[in-house]
Specification:
Length: 119
């Protein structure tokens, strides 16, 4: 039961839902998430960490970058079920549309994404 509660809490934040939405389209590093959502590195990293801890994401390394991806084989079956539900959910908000537009232009920058968000 606690796994379900933790998974639902992880999805109770708009930023984390936006991250899931972007990662359903393609795997990204922190700096690509920053650019797609137009958020700071701290905010992106904190929310990616919460999603990872609760079984929604897996990581892999590509050179200096940590790549985040949807974990479709998660040990937390609730996270897997909720991710499948989100994958079938139409995200029609203007916010989500803009995230995807920015993601299409996002590039890996810095050494392992150790950069500050530009204003």
């Amino acid at each position: 039961m606690q796994d379900l509660i933790d998974a639902l809490k992880a999805l109770s934040d708009e930023t984390r839902l936006r991250i899931i939405h972007v990662l359903l389209k393609r795997d990204c590093c922190v700096c690509e998430i920053m650019q797609a959502l137009d958020i700071s590195q701290t905010r992106a990293s904190r929310n990616l960490g919460i999603l990872h801890k609760n079984g929604f994401l897996k990581t892999s390394r590509e050179g200096a970058w940590i790549i985040y991806a949807i974990d479709r084989e998660t040990a937390n079956q609730h996270a897997g079920s909720l991710t499948s539900l989100l994958a079938r959910t139409p995200f029609k908000s203007e916010v989500y549309r803009k995230d995807i537009q920015r993601m299409a232009k996002a590039k890996r920058i810095g050494h392992g994404c150790k950069v500050k968000k530009e204003s």
